Amino acid sequence: xxxxxxxxxxxxxxxxxxxxxxxxxxxxxxxxxxxxxxxxxxxxxxxxxxxxxxxxxxxxxxxxxxxxxxxxxxxxxxxxxxxxxxxxxxxxxxxxxxxxxxxxxxxxxxxxxxxxxxxxxxxxxxxxxxxxxxxxxxxxxxxxxxxxxxxxxxxxxxxxxxxxxxxxxxxxxxxxxxxxxxxxxxxxxxxxxxxxxxxxxxxxxxxxxxxxxxxxx
Amino acid sequence: xxxxxxxxxxxxxxxxxxxxxxxxxxxxxxxxxxxxxxxxxxxxxxxxxxxxxxxxxxxxxxxxxxxxxxxxxxxxxxxxxxxxxxxxxxxxxxxxxxxxxxxxxxxxxxxxxxxxxxxxxxxxxxxxxxxxxxxxxxxxxxxxxxxxxxxxxxxxxxxxxxxxxxxxxxxxxxxxxxxxxxxxxxxxxxxxxxxxxxxxxxxxxxxxxxxxxxxxx
Lengths: 217, 217
Description:
homodimer, Rossmann fold, eight-stranded mixed β-sheet, two-stranded antiparallel sheet, 25% strand
């Protein structure tokens, strides 16, 4: 599979690196065409790894992953270009984490979500929100946390969610651990989980944790 | 122990009923002195069960439990009277669930929480937020959901949290399954978990579930 990964931060590089290891062709996209972090990553990673601007990465990917921060997600996707997203599965792993007056805050929160904003702005992309409830090291290596912990998917396109569930399987998340929350509106629910994640992270000092949902019967 | 439970809804009656079964003296408090639901509950429950107005329940309790809905919590506690709360452990189990234009919404959300509002309004009460992340049947019978799932406590008073952890133990939550999130500010985190809970509830049709936090190493 050819992936375009938007965002050269830790999340983007970690996802892109693991997808290359898994044998995929990955273009890591950044705001500028000559981003040194992306170029260095592409050089170090493998022949299947390339670096480029957002538009090049999105154009190259059969699947596009949004791994930039929530506050800049729409700008990055506009730079990527609707023509490079239309009809494609667009995996959104970001959180709406903004810093206001030195405090971590969610923007948007509750009445909207980044996942929904992306789907509204790119109505022909098939947006699937997932993986934002875990640290990027856990995203690509769920086995580093013990137990049958879960990951969530939200999206309006059932086939797109199925395809993303396949990708999650390659990353180490068996299908039975993927909880389908419903339409893209449910992105609100997983984005609002962030404060609980952040609180547990601050208290424990480690990002290596995740939740398992237990059901009766 | 003598408990005052404020709120005659399902949450209040369920908690009060279980505490009576466990041998405690419980006064179930309602807005009015002659609430028929509370009176019927007290008649049916046991000798240790009484019904009264909010102020009577709060006065009778060594520990007071706020089990009214988030939007009316402060009103109920004002009716209970600061003089009946000062110095006492005040267990807040409510969620900030409001209905606006037919939609479930949180109020407050993110920049504040019901737990914090209560602590600010009653600075001499020792507020502990807990149990709001599970359905009331699970609150008093965690064994109905399989697995070592967790419950959270938030509060500024360490001794009060210890006392509440003891109460949780009686309800079936061993201390090692009680996650201390820190000060009462962390009530925001557990209150914002509600949308994820509601989404999973709607999708599954059952309130009998809960999350377990898995940590690496």
